[in-house]
């Protein structure tokens, strides 16, 4: 990290200290010490807030949700540096808030993702179905530049799916990968010692060849997840198993091809999808909102820190190490992990 970044970090720390001093000074000159002290220590009920995208009737609202990036639950490993990319817990919380909010009459889901984890994709799908069934809230999907594999999985239950002509979608299927560097290690005299309780405990180990039995076990798991993927498309799109499997071979397709295959309904950008929701559900005067993080000092400091370190190579590498999964796992994913 260069001198300029150290100076910027120091300035942020000084700003943090000055803010605390100013707040304490304002409390000192206040007439109600106990009340102000309680307010200072009070923890907000929610870390989220609503941002109005289009003003309108607050009793009938359209919520815009966004899935941008690889769908995986990275926990809180990168929270100190601010939210970056897809935040699984935040997205699941948004769906829960919509289910509990009677003023939300429709949802527009923006999807720009190559997919991700099998479990996380299934969690999103199940929650969307829950909101649709229990709160009777329709979902329209607006696909961005990519909505492939798990990105399509979470789109499948939507009432309508809109694409751009250049959208890359499809890639219906499941993948599990690992790297075998055993032979390379041998060339450099590296010896691996493995102590295990059973013959399959180190299945897909990067230090040895996978056996025929192991491959059969994993293929069975992959096939089961694939059939689940096909099933949710059958239900969501009203297609037969044969129709789905005709294009569910991992192929990627553009927006036009997706519409022709029955995987999407129409073309349009986000504003077109919002307008379609207004027209189809008599929501011409509805307010349009999105959810964001509350702008308390902690979140502002987090964003400042992110801006300071966003382009720092060392920090990016550390973040990658904290968020990447080392163990092979099944993925609804197009492209590399």
Helix-strand pattern:
HHEEHEEHEHEEHHHEHEHEHHE
* Distinct helical segment count: 12
Query: How confident is the prediction overall: mean pLDDT?
Result: 83
Q: State the share of residues found in helices, binned by percent.
A: 40-55%
Query: Runs with pLDDT <50, length 5+?
Result: 27-44, 76-83, 306-310, 320-325
What would the principal axes of the Cα set say about the shape? elongated
Quick one: CATH class? Alpha Beta
Question: Tell me about the biggest sheet?
Answer: 9 strands, mixed
- Our estimate of the beta-strand percent is 15-25%
The fourth-level CATH homologous superfamily is 2-enoyl-CoA Hydratase, Chain A, domain 1
Written account of the structure:
Residues 27-44, 76-83, 306-310 and 320-325 have low confidence and may be disordered. α1 (3-28) packs antiparallel against α11 (297-309) and α3 (88-100) packs parallel to α4. The chain is elongated, with a radius of gyration of 24 Å. It has one domain: 2-enoyl-CoA Hydratase, Chain A, domain 1, CATH 3.90.226. β5 (139-148), α5 (150-153) and β6 (160-163) form a beta-alpha-beta unit. The protein contains 12 helices and 11 strands. By secondary structure, the protein is an alpha/beta fold. The strands form 2 sheets. Strands 1, 2, 3, 5, 6, 7, 8, 9 and 10 form a 9-stranded mixed sheet that branches.
Structure described in brief:
44% of the residues lie in helices and 19% in strands. The chain is built from 12 helices and 11 strands.
